[in-house]
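Q: Hi! First time doing this. I have a protein sequence and I read that you can turn it into a structure. Is that right? Here it is:
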Amino acid sequence: MTNTDVLLRSFEERYGRKTERVYFAPGRVNMIGEHTDYNGGRVFPCALSFGTSLAVAANDSGLLRFASLNMPETRETGIGDQWHPIEGKSWVNYALGAIAQAAKKGVRPAQGYDLLYSGDVPIGAGLSSSAALEVVTAFAFNELCGSGFCRTEIAQMAQAAEHEYAGVQCGIMDQFASAQGRQGHAMYLDCSTLDCEWVPLDLTGMQIVLANTRSPHKLSSGVYNERVAQCRQAVEDIRKAFDIQHLAELTAEQFAEAEKLISDETVRRRARHVVSEAERTKQAVEALKAGNIGLFGRLMNASHASLRDDYEVTGRELDAMAEAAWAEEGVAGSRMTGGGFGGCTVSIVREDAVEEFKKNVGAAYKKRTGLTAEFYVAQAGDGVRRLM
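A: Yes, that's right. Below is the predicted 3D structure, encoded as structure tokens:
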């Protein structure tokens, strides 16, 4: 039985009627360009082949009823209510927040709907399960209400839901990748302008392997927002000499001149990561286009080191996983992906070495942390879409 079959059967059991429509939005993996999206930089993510599905059918109750196969919590709210974020860490905030953004634009559901979600993005793995939930909801209600929003607008609405209903001041990358993904491609996205170039992920003879630390992604909204604030402080300090809006506008040479304007050493290191990561991302995309996977991998390794030393968002488990990968034959490069403090690493591994990679990296990681890793071979998939 497929995941969709399970969702359809579960929907009928819960709500007593058949599903009318099913939608799907993917998670994402960012190959390189971490914590640059909210700093006006470029990123290089791809949508994944796994994500979050939503089954929906109209009801005559005037209620939006939320349920999930992954979470025990259920909620309902009236279509005419004044919606506000639910107190505490409710998964429903991500969905309700997405619908609320459409309401801000004058689009409200004319009738109630029963909603059932099911996701196979590992929660807490840093692969954007929250963005997938937001995007699939925004996309579904765009169709259900006949709103006519484009995919970029859907991504922006999903991002606003994360800001206002989950309290995380994230950049646009996760939602944009989930909304706009193309099979077999990564997207070289300028987060300040939303200009995007789709680049074929031509990794002949290599595979993308995700390694889940099984240490849940612990970059809380407080820590994330602290990094955002530190980067904003760096911009304010640097603007004494350079007319910039975002850190990623600076070249390495400009930053070498400007960093003395940043009085706080911690803020200076945060800024150094952003500027150097922006340059690494540019070089990595050029390397991929030239077929130089070795250079791409070395830039991935350097990205992880910068995230560890300057941005300080890796943590014990991610460092152990990356270092175990670096020690393996057949690995071009490996780095943390996502917000940090748990979640996944992404590695480029020679096809004939994947099984040995899983075995050896898993053993080395368990020896250092006591945790059992999970591994997924990733494929670049399409963005949000209707399945039925």
